[in-house]
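Suppose a classmate hands you a notebook page containing two proteins, each written out with its sequence and a corresponding row of structure tokens. How would you begin to make sense of it? This section walks through that situation. The first entry is reproduced here exactly as it would appear on such a page.
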Amino acid sequence: MSAHEVDLVVIGTGPGGEALANAAASAGLDVVVVEKHLVGGECPYYGCIPTKMMVRGSDAVAEVRRVPQVAGEATITPAWSVVARRISEEATAGWDDTIGVERLEKVGATVHHGVGRLAGTGRVVVETPAGETLELTARRGVLVNPGTRPAVPPVEGLADTPYWTNRDAVRLTELPGSVAIVGGGPIGCELAQVFARFGVRVTVIQHGSRLLAADEPEASALVEKVFAEEGIRVLTDVELVRAAYADGAFVLTLDTGEQLTADKVMVAAGRVPNLDDLGLETVGLDPAARTLEVDEWLRAGEKLWAIGDVTGHGAFTHVAMYQQAIALRDILGQGGAPAQYHAVPHATFTDPEVGGVGMTEQAARDAGLRVRTGSTDLAASSRGFTYGPGGHGLIKVVEDADRGVLVGATAVGPAGGEILGFLAVAVHAEVPVPTLRSMIYAYPTFHRAIEAALADLS
């Protein structure tokens, strides 16, 4: 075992960990980075970036199919090979992180591929693929950004089948005839629509009462309606109780007694935090915990910071990037504003897109607020009317009536995630509702519908 003393050790390089390591090294710290898989993490290789290339392809297919209703005649022959090539060549470089490693090394960081584990306060032990063991002592401390992995429900027989997760889906070079997707959250919904638009017969199995359960029910209902129109079968309030695979086909048994057959099964049933093999017990923390408790400076303990999905403030790249900037300032002793999470935005890139920020109506009521809500049909707006097919959506705002500010909002529609930007500012800055009502909203835009939703507050 070789021992080294450094300033900072970063375990896990999702976008937040990579950015912090880069900035800390650029600031002159002696930084060692430990990454089990690929520098950059889930987002650029298996999540945000490749899946949005998939969505872009499926949206282009859908738009061509809408041409006869708005502009003339057009036909398209979808080719998954084009999407697969873009993901491999443009997004992931064949799932090679050489560029990411070089980016860190260029600013002076040392990168080790291997397993990093805490071994006491400010100490890390690294096991490399070559069998080498390194012991690191960090003068400033350790930042952990371990991320999550796909959760696999304890369904009888499932573990013995060749099921997919999102990691398998983004590496596909050809598509099956049919797929059953277990889970109706953002990943399941985005990929269900992608596959369906490329000709795959898709069934979504959701144990809860609706898709996108973290969003407003009105958003879920609209997405389910669109899925039905596009031939996607959605089963809600059902449980998968048994899975079997033989002769190239899956047989899935539901708690209703129905049996489904599919060429492939994709599991999109949530995520598991990578905390169980991090050595948390050596610093007095629970390795079986679902999240790491952190303070407003992302401190999880003495000489220990944590960022990203495992902090429990939203499994989003933008949350990790927000947190890393705060943790970095604390590591460097620079101070500044602490973390706040009252206006965390998110977007699901179905068609229509579903964007949300802050609290849902139910969350606000559960928090004991006196709530007023307002909503409007995006398709009834001038822009929605002229847009034609695909112009459906809604805006919903949630007000704390006692303070007269928005505490949450939802934007569903074409570019719903972009419309959300306006609403995120309103929630984050706690702009008084009378001020929002007094603004001039450009006509005819989708975001002008926000004015109608504010007028509907009741």
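The notebook's second entry, a different protein, reads as follows.
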Amino acid sequence: MRKFILLSIFICAILISTDTNSFSKSGSSDSTVSGTKEVCIVSGETIDGDGVKYVYLNKEVIFCCEGCEKSFKKNPAKYLGSEGLWCPVCDDGDAKTDLSEVVDGTKYYFCGDSCKKKFTEDSETYLSNYKK
């Protein structure tokens, strides 16, 4: 029984692993080559076709529908976890969920009060660094 549980945990870990360029759940970044299907990180549903693609701070996120994209934008930390939080000011992965600002309906997170203040004063400059 113990071996079965450990094997199940191992298989689950493989199935929900993500690649470094995308926040959708899949065993591969190219679902057509490996035969695996992308899974929406919001709903958990299989993504048909190309899905709805959104770029959040240079990371492509793939959703099953526009409703899931909207939910993600309201609270990215809920779906990315602490490892996916990036401070757009200092360009580092040390942002905190309790320091955030919403711009054009999308929430962004910061590593400290000074980064949040800089972003609030000139968000377009910082976000333009990610629109290259």
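A careful reader of the second entry would note: Residues 22 and 59 are 6 Å apart (CA to CA).
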